[in-house]
Design goal:
Helices cover 31% and strands 21% of the residues. It is α+β, with helices and mostly antiparallel strands.
């Protein structure tokens, strides 16, 4: 669930910021497994399986589940998101840095008051069944979306937006209030009027796979057989016919099944890689140029610690929060999670508003933390004491987290780091039920370890504005800062990119300085593939499926680029 759901002030249900971290295990028998994998590759090179790898088709494996392809509320599974990227286009696309690019829209214009946006469509774009794309298709899509305002987040966002067809290739959107995050809504996949006219969102859900998915995207949907989806290149794609003629998405219910299919040569790539297997596969990749391990930073996903400001506790004291921030090494914490990058603020470094100066605010310094705690009157009661005290009170803090292996590992390291400055951190691992039923709605925590998933736009009104403190508002720490409120209000009403940059850089500096949240790291997403796909992958992305945004440029190499092992 994305932050964009909150910035329009239409929360539909309990927002879960807690996501289950993938389990991390120590890879046993790594050398033995590496040998077995290399033997599998050799087997592939000398058997009929080679024909599968070099058939000219891309067979892509996905670990997870596959329900239905609903482009207006793309599922959380990789298979569903990937399918949507192949089939559909939007008016615009937005990269991980927040830059907006034309897609089905050739260009657009925004009124001086910022409340009206007019999009001029590309001419000659064809649906997979031959009809031409027009402004009526766009209007139908958003009317269908609006009819699901109680069933889908995007519908709730769109319900107060007026859509008007002003010509065959011209469509206008009118907002009641300016919102710079409007363009994220414009990244909604567009559907054909001739298939969806007069249909409600509930009817769309009811029909499910009975509706043949038809888009304008680089690949045309052919059929589904169980958990396998078949696609062929769209010969009339407006950006040019894709080089890879056929693509299949094979969804595997278990990781071991996907891995076995990969080493049999049934698929050329699969994701996500089980974190417990990353070291093993990375070792194999480093000894053979036949396999590549592809890492992508989840730029809009951030794990952090959040202080609860709604209750009377030591976390209400600014100097204490800053001392805690200075006691935690983000680098050491990030090392616990394979592929993670340290996080220094509410934005990843790929964002256009990222301000590197936040890296120096409350930077790790145990000596400074000790000095701050001394000034606050917290001292060791005797030589060799483990924790500081003030009078009869020991310096304690309780950390609540979703009880998973990765979370426990992170919590243990943080406890060790705080103990070195005399803070006794108690750990409270809870189930997902407890987290959702009491911890979040009742704000039953002092310090919370959790994950936020934001939209591409830098607007984080829903997370930090004081109006969002009442659950299901997303300001879970009950943060209240007049300056932060002012900056968030100003940023979301400002459409000028340079002015927004100035606003959000000040916002992140103030937020990090106030230490109401201690940002820890951005996780990564891993894919493994045979080195026969010629493509350019992003180093970071808002969603894993964004790696398919340029799939129309991908090519299958006719032979191994470098067959010999290093």
């Amino acid at each position: 669930m994305k932050l964009r759901e909150a910035i329009w002030n239409y929360p539909l249900a309990v927002i879960t910021f807690i996501t289950k971290f993938s389990a991390l295990f120590v890879a046993l028998f790594g050398v033995l497994m590496g040998v077995a994998v290399l033997m599998s590759i050799t087997f592939i090179s000398n058997t009929k399986y080679t024909n599968r790898l070099f058939s000219g088709a891309l067979n892509y494996g996905v670990v997870g589940t596959l329900e239905t392809i609903n482009p207006l509320e793309v599922g959380e599974t990789d298979g569903e998101q990937m399918a949507s990227k192949l089939i559909y286009n939007s008016l615009v696309s937005i990269d991980e840095a927040g830059v907006v690019f034309p897609e089905l829209a050739d260009t657009w214009a925004i009124s001086p008051d910022g409340k009206e946006s007019i999009f001029y469509l590309k001419k000659g774009v064809r649906w997979h069944d031959g009809y031409e794309l027009t402004a009526r298709d766009v209007a139908t899509t958003f009317e269908l979306l609006k009819s699901g305002d109680r069933e889908t987040v995007l519908g709730a966002i769109a319900k107060d937006i007026e859509v008007e067809v002003r010509g065959t290739y011209e469509v206008a959107f009118r907002l009641k209030q300016v919102n710079a995050a409007f363009f994220e809504l414009m990244a909604t996949p567009i559907l054909p009027e001739h298939l969806y006219s007069d249909m409600s969102y509930s009817r769309l859900v009811e029909l499910g796979d009975a509706i043949m998915p038809v888009g304008t995207g680089p690949y045309q949907y052919i059929r589904r057989e169980g958990n396998v989806l078949y696609f062929q290149a769209n010969a009339n794609y407006f950006r040019g016919k894709p080089a890879i003629r056929y693509i299949t998405i094979k969804v595997f219910s278990e990781y071991k099944l996907a891995e076995a299919a990969f080493f049999r040569g049934d698929i050329q790539a699969f994701a996500p890689v089980d974190p417990s297997k990353i070291d093993q596969l990375t070792t194999v990749a480093s000894t053979s140029e036949r396999i590549t391990m592809n890492k992508m930073i989840r730029s809009n996903s951030t794990r952090l610690l959040l202080f609860n400001r709604s209750k009377e506790n030591i976390g209400k004291e600014l100097q204490f929060r800053q001392a805690v921030a200075k006691s935690i090494s983000k680098v050491d914490v990030a090392k616990l999670v394979i592929g993670a990058d340290p996080a220094y603020g509410p934005y990843d470094s790929s964002s256009y508003v990222y301000d590197a100066r936040v890296e120096g605010i409350n930077a790790y310094s145990r000596s400074e933390a000790n000095g701050m705690l001394d000034k606050m009157g917290w001292h060791y009661p005797y030589s060799g004491a483990l924790y500081r005290t003030k009078g009869d009170n020991e310096l304690t803090l309780a950390l609540t987290f979703l009880d998973t292996e990765t979370n426990r590992n992170v919590a243990l390291v943080i406890r060790e780091q705080l103990a070195k400055v005399g803070i006794n951190l108690s750990l409270n691992g809870v189930s997902s039920e407890v987290m959702l039923q009491s911890v979040l709605p009742e704000k039953e925590f002092e310090l919370l370890l959790f994950e936020i998933n934001t939209g591409i736009d830098p607007d984080q009104y829903g997370l930090w504005h004081s109006s969002q403190t009442t659950f299901p508002g997303l300001n879970l720490g009950s943060y209240n800062s007049p300056l932060i409120d002012e900056l968030l209000e100003k940023g979301r009403l400002q459409s000028n990119r340079d002015l927004r940059l100035e606003v959000y850089q000040q916002f992140q500096q103030e937020l990090v300085r106030d230490a109401v949240a201690i940002f820890l790291y951005h996780p990564s997403y891993f894919e493994v593939s045979f080195d026969i796909i010629d493509r350019k992958l992003p180093n970071s992305a808002a969603e894993p499926s964004d790696r398919f945004s340029n799939i129309y440029t991908w090519k299958m190499l006719p032979e191994w680029r470098n067959w010999q092992t290093r």
